[in-house]
Amino acid sequence: MIEFKLDLKSGVPFHRQIVDQIRYGIASGRLLPGEQLPTVRDLAVQLQVNPNTVRKAYSELEILGILDTQQGTGTFVSHREVEIGDAEKRRMLKQICDELVARGHQYNLTLTEIVEYLQGRPDHETQK
After folding, report:
1. Which sequence spans correspond to the domains of the chain?
2. How confident is the model at residue 128 (pLDDT cuts 50, 70, 90)?
3. CA geometry: angle at 94 spanning 48 and 19, to 5°?
4. Distance in angstroms (rounded) separating the CA atoms of residues 75 and 29
5. For the segment 7-24, what is each residue's pLDDT rounded down to a tens digit?
6. How far is 38 from 59, CA to CA, in rounded Å?
7. Taking the chain, what is the end-to-end CA distance rounded to the nearest angstrom?
8. Neighbours of 19 (CB within 10 A)
9. Which end of the chain has less neighbouring CB within 10 Å, N or C?
10. Whether 18 contacts 53, CB under 8 Å
11. Per the confidence metrics, is the pTM higher than 0.85?
12. What is the CATH topology of the domain spanning 14-77?
């Protein structure tokens, strides 16, 4: 199971963040076919959002065939494979980098300092 988190400062709608986390969780193998997701209510409470936000994300993924909702038992990851395309990976990388640079600037870090730090990190640290 993945741990859902919302970034309040990213500017990305909450339902989109939930959709992305589920899709990336499936693509990375952290969410497996048949795995049950939290109920709409439970996830809404956990993320402190309106249940309609979670319902919208789940519905979008159900329409795409990525999730299966079984009345009375819950919402499950379907057996459909999810691939993240290069364009989407670049979009996500841009979003992550924009956020990193903006947060760094809040602490008076320059882009050069951020890049130098990242270049000095061993690859295994980025896998954690």
Report:
1. 14-77, 86-126
2. very low
3. 35
4. 18
5. 888 888 999 999 999 999
6. 14
7. 16
8. 21
9. C
10. yes
11. no
12. Arc Repressor Mutant, subunit A (1.10.10)
DSSP alpha helix (H) spans, 4-110: 14-27, 40-47, 51-63, 86-106
* Share in percent of the chain as helix, strand, coil (round to 5): 55, 5, 40
| Alpha-carbon span 24 to 112, nearest angstrom | 29
Supply 15's token pair.
Answer: 């339902």
If you search the block for the tokens 């048949």, which residue do you land on? 34
* 1 contacts 31 by C-beta, under 8 angstroms: yes
pLDDT digits (tens, 9 = 90+) for 55-107: 999 999 999 999 999 989 999 999 988 878 888 889 888 888 988 998 899 99
Task: Extract the tokens encoding 91.
Answer: 């979009």
Separation of alpha carbons 78 and 80, rounded Å: 5
pLDDT confidence of residue 124: 55
Q: Which two tokens stand for residue 14?
A: 């909450």
Cα–Cα distance, 104 to 84 (Å, whole number)? 28
What one-letter code names the amino acid at 85?
Answer: G
